[in-house]
Write a structure and sequence with these properties.
By secondary structure, the protein is an alpha/beta fold. The strands form seven sheets. Strands 12, 15, 17, 18, 19, 21, 22 and 23 form an eight-stranded mixed sheet that branches. The protein has a six-stranded parallel sheet with strand order 10-7-5-4-1-11, with helices on both faces.
């Protein structure tokens, strides 16, 4: 017995020592990784800046190394955001060490609003006289081609695939699948164009929704073709013919048509870059990634007395504090209060990339922006989306900027209620009994549908929410309520169309919005402070160990199919009245 206890204690002691050693070694490794990530970098002369369009590009990238920590791969993956790309291109234009820019392309789709933002920044970079070369190893998507169309030269690998075929919006419907599962979705809505609920109600597009989708994808495609035509000196008629005939699948014909400038292997590309940068034959051109250049040592100006706050609002709008990929109404409101109550900020720019979400959270965010706008100028910059709840929160701003390719408007609301009695009772054998004090005490139980009385009350609630939405737009945009209602009903508009309807004030991007905010605040010299602020190590780790890691694992395993899981899963989370676009609007 003594021998058993001795060996048991020895084993436990050994495990504890091994665990402690592992902990301290991991901590030391993390410290080295963080120190390496935080260390400023120097840029060599004759360098080229590299923009990779094949990555997921968030609105807000952060220099804080923990923001790029991937708990699944247990490594740091820097993810430069739109803010980093715009800033880097601006400073690279006047940095003598940077001789030009290389765009490397992939298949990732980041959205047409972001594509427009990056393309315009590249046009400003070109004004410096520095070269831009675009190169594709494998797949040149339409979005990447649109960005690359401003380049001096567009090269592709001889075996690459190029995409230029026009735009399509594919909408997935779940009504038949839900019926087979025994789930009936009851919908209460206001707005005949409110397509967010059609995927649960119908097995195809309604005429109204089809009409509006055709309208906005035609508007976006026309804008893209006009800009490509100007950059590549190809008529819009010819570009549409090339798209219809799928000419780009034959790279020789794409070259002949002037869509690209050549086919090169990577070593041939590097030889051309050597020539452009004056790099010696026995050396490789110095390539600097966006994440590395963000940490480059640049002569810093003195701290300004005043600041402009730039707040990023990206994702679905939810109640509470939110997680990665959505906007928590409470956390956003707290940020706005902090900015408003500080003497440091003279203006606010809110970068909105949201299809909307919970109507109550949207209204709370609207209130905080409205209160802030009473104190200091607020300017909104719209990205891919600023629709429904995303538009709701934007309307009290002093000025609203949108890209021509932004999807906005969608002034409409709905409520959704899944009833799964057939699934629970007939397919799973789960039954229920209920004891209640009043007639409607078990309202919204998944075991039964709504009664006519409950449905009437819910409809009144949805109608009231819509009336408030219309009133907010009317007051914020100085448009009478009847006209807002006629433009509303859930209709989605491009930024270009929204400008003509006075739903936005200007066509432009994030930099334009910041400059407008500075003008409104009478600022010539100012600093930029971005929100949300970088999370501390403990918060980041806790998020990684809970909801964030689950979402990342699902996306990692399912890839493109994860969007269908998310669309079905949203039935569980769509509580309360919603002001939002369809969960999936993809224009490719």
């Amino acid at each position: 017995m003594k021998s058993f206890l001795k060996y048991t204690l020895a084993t436990i002691t050994g495990l504890l020592i091994a665990g402690l050693l592992f902990f301290f070694i991991s901590l030391a490794s993390f410290s080295l990784m963080i120190a390496s990530a935080e260390k400023p970098v120097s840029i060599k002369s004759n360098s080229i800046l590299v923009l990779n369009t094949g990555l997921i590009i968030p609105e807000q990238g952060m220099n804080d190394p923990w923001s790029s920590f991937d708990p699944i791969e247990f490594t740091f993956r820097p993810a430069p955001g739109i803010n980093d790309i715009l800033s880097n291109l601006e400073k690279a234009a006047t940095d003598d060490r940077i001789k030009g820019l290389l765009i490397t392309n992939g298949m990732m789709v980041n959205g047409w609003g972001k594509a427009e933002e990056i393309r315009n920044a590249l046009l400003r970079f070109r004004e410096s006289g520095k070269f831009i070369i675009s190169y594709t190893d494998y797949i040149l998507s339409q979005e990447a081609y649109y960005i690359s169309s401003v380049a001096d030269k567009i090269y592709v690998n001889p075996n690459a695939i190029m995409e230029f075929k026009g735009l399509a919006s594919e909408v997935i419907f779940y009504k038949n699948a839900l019926e087979k599962l025994g789930v009936n979705v009851q919908v209460i809505r206001h707005g005949k164009y409110k397509g967010a609920v059609e995927k649960y109600m119908l097995s195809g597009l309604s005429d109204a929704n089809r009409e509006q989708i055709e309208r906005y994808i035609t508007s976006i495609w026309g804008h893209l073709v006009n800009n490509i035509s100007e950059s590549r000196q190809i008529s819009t008629e010819e570009l549409n013919r090339l798209a219809d005939d799928l000419v780009v699948f034959d790279l020789e014909k794409a070259l002949e048509a002037g869509l690209i400038d050549g086919m090169k292997y990577r070593d041939e590309l590097l030889e051309e870059i050597k020539s452009l940068t004056g790099t010696e034959d026995d050396k490789k051109p110095e390539q600097v990634s966006m994440s590395k250049y963000s940490k480059a040592v640049i002569d810093k100006k003195e701290k300004a007395e005043s600041s402009i706050a730039v707040v990023y609002a990206e994702g679905t709008i939810n109640m509470g504090h939110g997680q990665t990929g959505n906007i928590g109404g409470d956390s956003f409101s707290a940020m706005m209060r902090k900015i408003r109550e500080s003497d440091d900020y003279k203006a606010v720019v809110i970068r909105v990339n949201s299809p909307g979400g919970n109507a109550m959270a949207s209204d709370n965010m609207w209130r905080e922006i409205e209160l802030t706008n009473r104190e200091i100028p607020v300017v909104v910059s719209m990205s891919n989306y600023a629709a429904s709840g995303g538009y709701y929160m934007s309307v009290p701003a002093t000025k609203i900027f949108a890209q021509p390719t932004t999807l906005t408007g969608s002034i409409g609301v709905f409520g959704i209620y899944p009833e799964a009695s057939a699934l629970m009772e007939e397919k799973l054998g789960i039954t229920r009994d209920v004891v209640k004090t009043n007639k409607n005490s078990d309202m919204l139980s998944i075991f039964r549908g709504m009664t006519s009385q409950e449905e009437m009350i819910y409809q009144q609630h949805v109608d009231k929410t819509y009336e408030v939405f219309v009133k907010r737009v009317s007051e914020g945009r100085d448009i009478n309520e009847e006209k807002v209602d006629s433009m509303g009903q859930g209709q989605v508009y491009t930024g270009k169309d929204a400008l003509g309807l006075n739903l936005v004030d200007n066509i432009g991007g994030l930099r334009d919005a910041i400059e407008e905010a500075a003008t409104l605040a009478s600022l010539e010299d100012y600093d930029i402070k971005e929100y949300p602020e970088a999370e501390d190590i403990y918060t980041k780790l806790m998020k990684s160990l809970t909801g964030d890691i689950k979402a990342k694992l699902i996306k990692k395993e399912l890839g493109e199919l994860s969007k269908y899981y998310e669309s079905i899963n949203e039935l569980r989370t769509l509580t309360g009245v919603q002001a939002r676009l369809p969960y999936i609007i993809e224009i490719r």
